[in-house]
Design brief:
- The chain is mostly beta strands and about 850 residues long.
- The chain folds into eight domains: about 80 residues, Immunoglobulin-like, CATH 2.60.40; about 110 residues, Immunoglobulin-like (Sandwich), CATH 2.60.40; about 80 residues, Immunoglobulins (Immunoglobulin-like, Sandwich); about 80 residues, Sandwich (Immunoglobulin-like); about 160 residues, Chondroitinase Ac, Chain A, domain 3 (Sandwich); about 100 residues, Immunoglobulin-like; about 100 residues, Jelly Rolls, CATH 2.60.120.380; about 100 residues, Jelly Rolls (Sandwich).
- It has one helix and 70 strands.
- Strands 46, 47, 48, 49, 50, 51, 52 and 53 form an eight-stranded mixed sheet that branches. Strands 55, 57, 60, 62, 64, 66, 67 and 69 form an eight-stranded mixed sheet that branches.
């Protein structure tokens, strides 16, 4: 059947989908498409009754392919012989079709599969149809050559068969932007030529308004509900937010993490796929700004089996700096902004990306995270993706790609071969690998929490570059459901993740359907407008515990008190009942965060009990608390840590000590304790002689964690602020056993100073070799500070031998942040920060020690 498609002006229409159905509406062949001339030729199998009027002689024939199957590696050129009467002098045409009825050029690269062929001799003379097999794909060239008549036709004539009844077929065509066309056909097996006309579809009108907080970190809302379809039907929405992110609902929300101008593009698709596009520019203003302090973020990354994962690239969103995780999965980021949310992206080839959010509160210069990455499923190779495809993966995850529905990063139509990766997450067994946070914005712009039935990542790439759905097109997905609570035929909200912030945004709903491959026999089926992580979840109005704070008991001179400390907190919603059946479990929610000494904001689902386990960084103190959520509640949560029960012997060390030790495999952590006076500044140095592992220092309500690599050195420093004991915890559980040394020394002392009524202060003192003197003072925002070393004669330190540093002072005893100005003999700075405590440090550059005189002006 040759089908010609033209528009209502008689112009050929290319890339029209052509389908053929029988009387029972069964599709008889896979889709074919018109070429650039608006035409396509297809072979349609029909079933009719035939009569055999007798035996007739065949004078035209074609031989079978030999060898058969054909190997692309062995048979680059395949020659097919044909026979014809001596009087025949025309050049016949070889026709090759795949089993889907699509004509294939003899010069095409033939993929592995079965093909049928025949020879058209003209004047209504066709050879019989034969078959050959390509065993592997490759450039196979097929040639036609005249030879002897085929043996099969020489031995005996073939029977002629004629039809005595008709087959009824229905031909249908469609293409986005055109009204579908169709025609009923009756055939007895003869070739047909059909011409169809397709009229253009009426275009919709795209309109949207912008509202919300147009600044960094703010929630911006987009509303396109005033858009209309010319035919009065429904609309499909496709948003491009100008920063590489996309949305697909009439109302959508988005968070911008950078200032600047953004062009918002809305494409609406109406009845029969006609589209309209509108654009609008917005300006994102600066949001809350970080302080001049910078801090350190440390973390550890695992795979889905909780094995440490190395060579994971950890990046701060909006910053060019990146770091790779080491052998133990550990990473440390320096110079991280303080006082504002910081978003981290974790990426490793072959793994799905992960998002982490941390906040270094004011006067806090340390933050921590733990995260898990899920290994992506093996990509599935899809050929001729422009013709559409249906791909199934593990646990019943599925993706149906529309024809001509993909574009590359430059907006060009994607054709040919692509790689499709479908990665579901078993939220019951792999909760740690859940992407982003269990927090979301629903379609009304409300923020809350999520309880997940299942989540899956859908990605497509071509030549190593990401591929997306074209604006106005949709794909159908199936997300496996891993928990109970879902009911066949019911709707569940559908969510996509912001792959920078880790926050989920609602994008409509899906329908619960049957799925044989799903662990529960159910999946959520939905239409989506872009590829991403997709999640089927229940949204809840959370119980907010703000702040959640961990406390540890510390004693001084026999007086004990609770001190806020940093801790890990993690926990899951407790099931209503224990059961081995997934259908008896409930949607999954998890708490997983680092709680700084200043506290953290924790969300809990209402009307259910969530059990939270908290642990100090070194693991020596733990607690378990249960929270029964109440919707809309907001109150603090105090978590009191107690000794964990891990048996450890604390080794006491003093200034000047250097101890050698060995960490043995499967050993409990080794702990070192030392006393620090209220004005003392100290330094702990660990030198590896083969050992690799985690080093944690605790004291004064603060914790700091570092990683010691084999043959490496790690230095920890701090100050007393009050007479207290500090602890260093050496843990090689996820590292390498071996030898190491630990050394403790006092590096200086500090004291508070005050400016007089003229804004001046004069200080005289001594500084020892390899020692630093620290003077802290209060200053106001906008103050100018000048500090200089004054010559005190032959007995004093020369000004050129002294380094002067101006810094922001932190009450964190481990703070090593915030250096602002450093130079020899003098330093000056204009303070742009808010009012607060600052410090000046005096250090002898020559390490000789001696007296000095310091003069400061405000």
């Amino acid at each position: 059947m040759t089908v010609q498609v033209e528009d209502d002006s008689g112009v050929p229409v290319p890339r029209v989908r052509v389908r053929v159905f029988d009387e029972s509406e069964t599709e008889l062949l896979a889709t074919a498409f018109t070429d650039s001339a608006g035409a396509t030729t297809i072979i349609v199998p029909t079933s009719v009754d035939v009569e055999d009027p007798g035996i007739v002689s065949s004078t035209f024939s074609v031989d079978a392919v030999y060898p058969n199957p054909v190997s692309a590696d062995m048979n680059r050129v395949v020659t097919i012989a044909y026979s014809a009467p001596v009087s025949y002098s025309d050049v016949p045409r070889l026709e090759i079709f795949d089993l889907l009825g699509r004509k294939v050029s003899s010069s095409d690269i033939l993929s592995a599969g079965v093909y049928v062929y025949r020879v058209d001799f003209g004047t209504n003379q066709l050879s019989k149809t034969r078959t050959f097999v390509v065993a592997d794909g490759g450039p196979v060239e097929v040639r036609l050559a005249r030879g002897d008549r085929s043996r099969s036709n020489r031995t005996q004539p073939s029977p002629a068969k004629t039809a005595n009844s008709l087959a009824s077929l229905v031909l249908r065509t469609d293409k986005p932007g055109y009204q579908p066309a169709g025609q009923a056909i009756e055939t007895a097996g003869q070739d047909l030529e059909v011409t169809l006309e397709m009229a253009s579809a009426a275009h919709p009108q795209a309109v949207f308004v912008v509202s919300g907080t147009l600044e960094e970190g703010g929630l911006v809302s987009f509303d396109a509900t005033s858009s209309v379809d010319a035919a009065g039907g429904g609309l499909t929405y496709s948003w491009a937010f100008g920063d590489g992110k996309r949305g697909a609902r009439p109302r959508s929300s988005h968070t911008y993490l950078r200032t600047g101008s953004y062009e918002i593009t809305l494409v609406v698709s109406g009845t029969h796929g006609a589209v309209d596009t509108t654009r609008k520019a917005i300006e994102i203003a600066p949001g809350p700004q970080p302080s001049s302090l910078t801090g350190v973020v440390s973390g550890v990354v695992f795979d889905q089996l909780q094995n440490p994962l190395r060579d994971v690239m950890v990046s701060v969103v909006g910053d060019t700096a990146t770091e790779l995780t080491g052998p133990g999965g550990h990473v440390q980021l320096q110079d991280v902004p303080v006082g504002v949310p910081v978003f981290l992206t974790l990426a490793k080839s072959g793994y799905s990306t992960q998002q982490v959010s941390v906040t270094l509160e004011s006067d806090t210069t340390e933050a921590y995270f733990r995260a898990s990455l899920l290994e992506r499923r093996t990509p599935i190779r899809v050929r001729s993706v422009e013709n559409g495809a249906s791909i199934a993966g593990a646990d019943g995850v599925r993706l149906n790609i529309p024809y001509d529905g993909l574009i590359d990063e430059d907006g060009n139509r994607v054709t040919g071969e692509v790689l499709v990766s479908l990665t579901p997450v078993d939220v019951v067994e792999q909760t740690a690998a859940f992407p982003g946070r269990f927090e979301a914005v629903d379609e009304n712009g409300s923020t809350g929490g999520l309880q997940s039935y299942g989540v899956a990542e859908f990605t497509i790439s071509k030549d190593g570059r990401d591929v997306q759905l074209a604006p106005g097109r949709t794909a159908s997905i199936d997300i496996p459901i891993y928990t109970g609570g879902a009911v066949l035929g019911n709707e569940i909200a559908l969510w996509s993740v912001d792959e920078e912030t880790g926050q989920w945004t609602q994008e409509g709903t899906g329908i619960v359907t049957e799925s044989e491959a799903s662990p529960t026999g159910l999946a959520l089926r939905a239409d989506v407008g872009h590829f991403s992580w997709w999640n089927c979840d229940d949204f809840f109005d959370p119980d907010v515990r703000n702040p959640g704070v961990c406390y540890k008991k510390e004693c001084d001179s026999g007086v004990c008190f609770d001190v806020a400390v940093g801790c890990w907190a993690g926990g899951r919603r407790k099931p209503l009942q224990k059961s081995s059946s997934r259908l008896d479990t409930e949607p999954v929610f998890e708490v997983r965060t680092y709680i700084s000494p200043a506290g953290a904001r924790l969300l809990f689902p209402p009307d259910r009990e969530t059990e939270v386990f908290a642990s100090s960084l070194g693991g020596l103190f733990t607690a378990t608390v249960s929270v029964t959520g109440v919707a809309g509640n907001e109150s603090p949560l105090d978590i009191f840590l107690e000794p964990s029960g891990i048996e450890v012997d604390t080794v006491q060390i003093a200034y000047g000590d250097t101890l050698a030790a060995t960490y043995v495999a499967f050993q409990n952590p080794q702990v070192y304790g030392f006393f620090v006076g209220e004005t003392e500044v100290f330094e702990v140095k660990l030198i590896s002689d083969g050992f690799a592992g985690s080093i944690t220092m605790e004291g004064g309500g603060q914790s700091i964690e570092r990683q010691l690599t084999a043959s490496g050195t790690t230095t920890l420093s701090g100050s007393g602020l009050a007479d207290r004991t500090f602890f260093v915890i050496v843990d090689g559980t996820s590292g390498t056993p071996g030898d190491y040394r630990i050394a403790l020394r006092k590096t200086g002392v500090f004291e508070w100073i005050e400016f007089d009524e003229n804004g001046e202060v004069f200080v005289q003192g001594t500084v020892g070799p390899q020692e630093t003197r620290v003077f802290t003072y209060r200053a106001e925002a906008g103050d100018g500070i000048y500090a200089e070393i004054v010559d005190t004669g032959p007995d004093g330190l020369p000004a050129e031998d002294v380094t002067v540093r101006l810094k922001r002072w932190s009450t964190n005893p481990f703070s090593s942040c915030c250096q602002t100005t450093s130079s020899i003999a003098s330093a000056s700075e204009r303070l742009e920060e808010t009012s607060g405590a600052y410090s000046v440090e005096i250090e002898d550059r020559r390490n000789n020690g001696g007296t000095f005189a310091l003069r400061m002006f405000r």
